[in-house]
Automatic annotation (TrEMBL):
PANTHER family: FE(3+)-TRANSPORT SYSTEM PERMEASE PROTEIN FBPB 2 (PTHR43357:SF3), INNER MEMBRANE ABC TRANSPORTER PERMEASE PROTEIN YDCV (PTHR43357). InterPro entries: MetI-like (IPR000515), MetI-like_sf (IPR035906). The chain crosses the membrane at residues 20-50, 57-81, 87-105, 137-162, 191-215. This is Ferric iron ABC transporter, permease protein. It is found in: Cell inner membrane; Cell membrane. It holds the Pfam family BPD_transp_1. GO terms for biological process: transmembrane transport.
Length: 226
């Protein structure tokens, strides 16, 4: 990390700082958007899996197949499908986000599955016995209890998406460079000082959610002990 910081200081200038801020903004936008959509899409899939049945298992297997494939394969599939059936979508931010969601949806599903497994059915049954409809019981009981798992799912997907390189290289719009791209491009030519600034920014962005999680857990532990 010290060596990385030295390279970053060596390659940083006024123009470089503005460029890094732009690349960081691109990374935050694509990773944040992808994480939000993936978490929202994962919830009904996780619920279907938790309820069991062939339909739930089939849906879960289909949704989780994306993570078994390398990012470049998902990206090439997105290119092939978009150029054949949705030409205007090719080379857009939307297609990049779609590929990210397909790639990282399984992570969000697994996190929310784990959260649902920790919610006792007796809590939902108690709400139903008090007159709540299934939808109201889900909204008033399940969703609040699932909030920590949902937050964890978002953070996991965000951290994975923010450093994704192969899919970004293939699908990014013209002029839309992210931090991983700006690390890889100069590093392949041995320009480590130029790559160091983007790499350090990527490390800092990755550390922020982890620090927030640790602070939250410390606060929860302090409340519990009190």
């Amino acid at each position: 990390l010290a060596r990385l910081a030295a390279w970053a200081l060596e390659g940083l200038g006024p123009d470089g700082l503005l460029s890094i801020a732009a690349y960081a903004g691109n990374s935050l936008i694509v990773a944040g958007t992808s994480a939000t959509i993936a978490v929202a899409a994962a919830l009904p899939v996780a619920v279907a899996i938790a309820r069991g049945g062939r339909a739930g298992l089939a849906l879960g297997s289909l949704a989780q197949s994306g993570y078994a494939l390398p990012g470049v394969i998902v990206a090439l599939a997105a290119v092939a499908i978009s150029t054949r059936f949705a030409g205007p979508l090719y080379g857009t931010f939307t297609l990049l986000v779609i590929a990210f969601v397909v790639r990282f949806l399984p992570q969000a599903i697994q996190a929310q599955e784990a959260g649902l497994a920790q919610i006792g059915p007796n809590l939902v049954e108690a709400a139903r016995s008090l007159g709540a409809t299934p939808r109201a019981a889900f909204r008033l009981v399940t969703l609040p209890l699932l909030a920590p798992s949902t937050s964890a799912a978002w953070i996991v997907v965000f951290l994975t998406a923010v450093k994704e390189l192969p899919a970004t290289l293939v699908l990014r719009p013209i002029g839309f460079d992210t931090l991983p791209v700006r690390v890889w491009t100069p590093a392949r030519d041995g320009l480590y000082a130029e790559a160091g600034t983007a790499a350090l920014a990527l490390v800092i962005i990755s550390l922020v959610p982890l620090v927030l999680v640790l602070l939250r857990r410390r606060g929860e532990n302090a409340t519990f002990l009190a």
